[in-house]
Specification:
5 helices, single chain, paralog of FGE (formylglycine-generating enzyme), four-stranded mixed beta sheet
């Protein structure tokens, strides 16, 4: 068969049956404004909460990750990676937006950082923002953006929605945990082994920090990154999503209530409690030890707080 005819048949087949990318043949889409890649996540039901048995219990005895309960989510697309510095910079350049760290909102100067060689070690630093969140490491375009508040993440999503008809938003807590588990029922998507984390995420580990030493609570492994890593450097989960554990924490849309799991709640597509002054963030970061790097862990912060290891990724509903 002549070459041109073979080529024509291949091109015709591709136009009828589009190529699907991502893990397990999942469809992938790309945002034309930022180049952000999104992976299709097939919805379903799962058991949400601390099924492994090492969840946090508050001072008043509340187990905020219990009881384990069934939740179902619809199909959606999720960012293959965390939103990067380059993508966030495009938003800033087009809108002139100033983050809360840059505006020193809430009476807080800059962004919260952990510096083990300073006293106090944990404090808001006036020099820190999304442009420069870490004095030990120069920010790169392919790093996940950090030092962004929940309000900053919402502003980015609002801007991106204005560029198209796609409803970009932060994931719900249920969508996030469903996606992070990647169809598994274990402590994390790689299994129950805490010290297997270094193959799948950038976590607190035995990699030495600048000047020597380690983070206070570490995994007994080495991931090669003492601070933040470029996105996509570790193994993805079964849904083809990268860095769902470690690198930077990720804001979700839900309000926080420590007793929410114990009360009445929706089974299908829950969006969290209707009231609450703080928002949930998920996934752990490069300074997180084993207790924090868990699919079920659900800490919370005030909307305007910004930390040098907290970022976000976006989702949108399947059409």
């Amino acid at each position: 068969m002549p070459y041109l005819r073979i080529r024509f048949i291949i091109l015709l087949a591709l136009s009828i049956f589009p190529v699907r990318a991502g893990a397990a043949g999942k469809e992938a889409k790309s945002d034309p404004t930022t180049g952000m890649e999104f992976v299709a996540v097939k919805g379903g039901c799962f058991h949400m909460g601390d099924s492994y048995g090492d969840g946090y219990i508050t001072e008043d005895g509340t187990a905020i990750e219990k009881p384990v309960h069934e939740v179902c989510v619809s199909d959606f697309f999720m960012g293959k990676y965390e939103v990067t510095v380059k993508q966030f910079r495009k938003f800033i350049a087009e809108t002139g937006y100033k983050t809360e760290a840059e505006r020193n909102t809430g009476g807080l100067q800059g962004c919260y950082c952990v510096e083990l060689d300073r006293i106090p070690e944990r404090e808001y630093r006036s020099w820190a923002s999304w442009k420069n969140p870490n004095k030990y490491l120069k920010n790169k375009d392919n790093h996940p953006v950090s030092c962004v508040s929940w309000n900053d993440a919402q502003a980015f999503a609002t801007w991106l929605r204005s560029k198209s008809s796609i409803n970009y938003r932060l994931p719900t807590e249920a969508e996030w945990e469903y996606a992070a588990r990647g169809g598994t029922k274990t402590r994390n998507y790689w299994g129950n082994g805490k010290d297997d984390a270094c193959r799948y995420g950038n976590v607190a580990d035995r990699t030495k920090l600048k000047g020597g030493g380690n983070w206070p609570e570490i995994h007994d492994c080495k991931d090669g990154y003492p601070y933040v890593a470029p996105v996509g450097q570790f193994k993805p989960n079964n849904f083809g999503l990268y860095d769902m554990m470690g690198n930077v924490w990720e804001w979700v849309g839900d309000r926080f209530d420590g007793t929410y799991y114990q009360g009445s709640r929706k089974r299908d597509n829950p969006e969290g409690p209707e009231s609450g002054s703080t928002r949930i963030y998920r996934g752990g970061s490069f300074i997180s030890g084993p207790m924090d790097v868990r699919a079920a862990f659900r800490p919370n912060l005030q909307l305007g707080r910004r930390y040098y290891d907290v970022g976000f990724r976006l989702v949108f509903p399947a059409q």
